[in-house]
Prior knowledge:
The protein is mainly beta. The protein has 5 helices and 48 strands.
Amino acid sequence: MRAEGAVSRKTLLRNRLLAGAAALACAPLPAFAQTTPAGSTPPAVQADGLTPDAIYIEADTAGRQGDVISATGERERVYARFQGHTLRGRAVTYDIAQGIGTADGDVELVDPERNTVFASHLELDSDLRAGVAVDFATRLTNGASLMAATAVRRSENVNELNYALFTPCPICDDAGNPKTPSISIQAEKVVQDEELRAILYRNAVFKVGGVPVLWTPFFAHPDPTVERASGFLVPIFNYDDGRGVSVETPYLHVISPSEDWLISPQFNTRVVPFLNLQWRRRFTNGTIVARGGYTYAQNFGNFDLNGDGSAESNVDFGDRTSRSYFLGYGRFDPAGPWRWGFTAERTSDKTLFDRYDIIDPYQDNGLYYGDQRRLISQVYAERQTGRSYLSVAAFSIQSLRVARFNDVTPALNIFEADGTLPLVAPLIDARWEPSGPVLGGRLRLRGSAVSLYRDEYFGSPVLRPEIIPTTATTFGLPGVDSRRVSGQLDWRRSFASPAGIRYEPFVDGRVDVYSVADLPPVLGLEDETITRGRATVGLDVSYPLIRRLSNGADVIIEPLGQISVSTDPDLDFRIPVEDAQTLELDESSLFRIDRFPGYDLLEGGVRLTAGVRTTLRWSEGRTASLFVGRSMRDAEQDGFRIPIPDAPNRLYDPSGLASQTSDWVVQGTFQPSDRIRGWGHATVDGSGDIRRAEMAVDGRWGRRNLATASYIVDRSNPLDGPLNRNYEFVQLAAQQFVAGNWGVTVAGIADLERDLITRSEVGVVFDDDCFRIEVGYRRDNTRVSPTGPSDGIFFRLNLATFGGSGYGSNGLR
């Protein structure tokens, strides 16, 4: 009975002291602590010029007996300042000889880094190397709190706390009253080792919303002030029909402030584990990051084994073999005009990223980057000054794109062959401008050179359709190799009339030299050298008009026009089209001399381009704008047309520039408030049909509610068929909080072309200042992964202070 009574009194004392520490921690900070910048010396210290051994005290009453200074505060607490620290309390004593300070009653100590300690009783020596505190509570600059019934500073680096509680969450409500933190760790003893930069717990109890959920005899985590420290990060939970339940447990091993490893094995219930690794190293003038993954297993996917139309999931097939990926990059930017870098990206399986749900594999880390589902390995160097630029690069590409989908099972999809993609070595781009005006205008010289090599034959649009008969046999032919050297001169000058009309005459000259090898034998051609040139003169005209409206609003109407006259573009059918296969016709590209990217396709003849941009601006930065424009030429450009994939003997124009009149370009933005914004872009052909369109709207309401919706469509291919790549998608993502920190999230992508929701998820979320947790249902109907459509439960957890599990490069010094 006496033992039980002792435990009860012990628990009562612990709870009472912790409650007192929480109440002290919720007290408002004094004015000087709120206004002093972090890491700086309080202004009063500078003004008073205190020496390191001096102490400044303000109090209602103060006295001295020998070496002991005593001060008390009745109306206001005593205020003391020493060694960059500020101390407040109802009663303060300081022994000058021994250098020992004591404070009682609503004690508050703020160090030079703005970390704050609260206590009912506090003892410190002159060097702050030892101390005792009762009802101890500390509020760190990152918002975390550490409280204890008693605390002892054993040395300069070690604090020992008894009956302690740690939480990265707020412990005070908006009114300054104590509240139960969302997540906390309560322990019988806690040791904060500042040299190890860690917090160690004995008999630790984890609580969520004040409810115990886990007990462990020992636990440790990095000190909240540590940016990076070795230890386990937040695990990643997932479920997939192919892998089953997956748990990824990242472990961060910090070697130094500039180097670390991330070891993240993925454990699956249906397939063998998959190991992910990442190494990061920061150098004086650069960074290297290397990611990789490995498993030894069979492939797996969905198959219609019975022929009844119902696929069986997670069917192992193929040999057990090594399956892996590597994603690495380096960037180096030493002092001076030069910088250089590299990327190395390869995977053993076309669907490895999809099957094992690899985090963010497609990143833009180099000078050049592959689009979605293409990996690029490159080396490059750049030199840039105020008037010049030079880059030299070489790269190769691995494609993970599906060339033809299989209607029976995604496991039998046919992927784009890597041999049809070029090896680019080298690719050189250079620009130079003189320091002063030339003929009163700006002169720019540009040069470019490239060599491309292919292993396998690839026809249109690389080779123009008119040179390859549809009956010609091309199977087994080598890929066409090409080399190009280009030089360009661009001069432009701007004038403004007294009426505000802006005139910009321009002159452009360009010369290209091509060398083409391994053309198909059906052409009867050997290695060919082709030279072409083009000269252009023109004039840009714009006339911005502004009208003030009521309530401070205004409208700006700016008509834009361009006329250009060029020589024959000479679209030689022997020149492969490598760098001009895609064109985004928009407001910025419509008025360019060369609207195609790259060099292989160029325009000529007489062109007239016109458009008008209208912008409305009103209160508090709210705007809306609309642009409409179109271009006309003197003759059609049939060289811009390519074969329809499902009817190679017929041509179509995906660019919208082949006819004498281009597509209409319609583009707009709007922001009616600081919480709603959107934009849209469309190209419309002469008959009023939309060729391409894209728009997006996002909005926010309340403190955390938000939604984003986007729409994209491509109708450029006029003929349906299995190779038709027209598409139409709607994407939606939103979160709505319905009760306090509880809310719902939804996300989805709908393929309107196939009348199918390709991806969707719905979940419940809890989100506060301390952590975010999502639990929900996900469905994936994409046709790339061999596992085919899958569904399952997802779980996402992000914790403050305890670390994340991402693969970024933050934190390295």
